[in-house]
Amino acid sequence: MTASPQIKSKIVELCETLVADTDVKNAREKAEAFLANESAVSLYREMATLGRALHQKQHNGEEPSGEEISRFTDLQDQCDANTAILSFIEAQDVLRGIAEVVTSYVGKSLERGEVPAEAEVFSKGCGEGCGCH
């Protein structure tokens, strides 16, 4: 890593804060509980694998069979009813959201040479140069 010692120190401090955060801890616990649940992992993996296969079929101009669509719908319904899977998805959303906030702040700081305002990081706009501003 080519960052200065001061930057490295702040990165370590941020990581320490992240791993100590209650929301992060809860999300990690939910994710770990899901990963320890073999039946939930298997169900989720089967649904995801079939979903990718159906998507690939459509991408190749093929139509999935009614049986394939029915199987996928059944798997989706089972996943939607599985609390371990729902908790895992919620945990992923929490962790992904935190990572996006960190990335946004750091990226905008490097890009602009100043710390961005919170509104700049959390705005839903499409960015500069798109013609909508």
Short description:
The protein has 133 residues and is an all-alpha fold.
Report the radius of gyration as a whole number of Å: 21 Å
Strand content: under 5%
Class from helix and strand fractions: mainly alpha
Instruction: Give helix % range.
Output: over 70%
Shape: elongated
Q: Indicate the mean pLDDT.
A: 92
Q: Give the helices and strands as they follow along the chain.
A: HHHHHH
Number of strand segments: 0
First-residue to last-residue Cα separation: 37 Å
Main sheet specs: none
Low-confidence stretches: none
Please work out how many helical segments DSSP would assign: 6
Report what the structure shows:
- The chain is an all-alpha fold and 133 residues long.
- 77% of the residues lie in helices and 0% in strands.
- The protein has six helices and no strands.
- Helix 3 runs antiparallel to helix 4.
- The protein is elongated.
- The model has no long low-confidence stretch (mean pLDDT 92).
Summary tags:
0% strand; mainly alpha; 133 residues
Task: Present the secondary structure layout.
Layout lengths: L4 H16 L1 H15 L1 H22 L6 H15 L2 H30 L5 H5 L11
Helix pairs in contact: 2-5, 3-4
